[in-house]
Amino acid sequence: MDTRAAAKTWLAVVALAMAATAAAQTSPPLFVVHFETGPSWNKSIAATEQPSFREHSANLNRLRKEGAIVFGARYGDLGMIFLKAESLEAATAVLDADPGVRSGLFAYRIAPLRVFYPWQP
Question: Cα–Cα distance between 72 and 107 in angstroms, integer?
Answer without folding.
Answer: 16
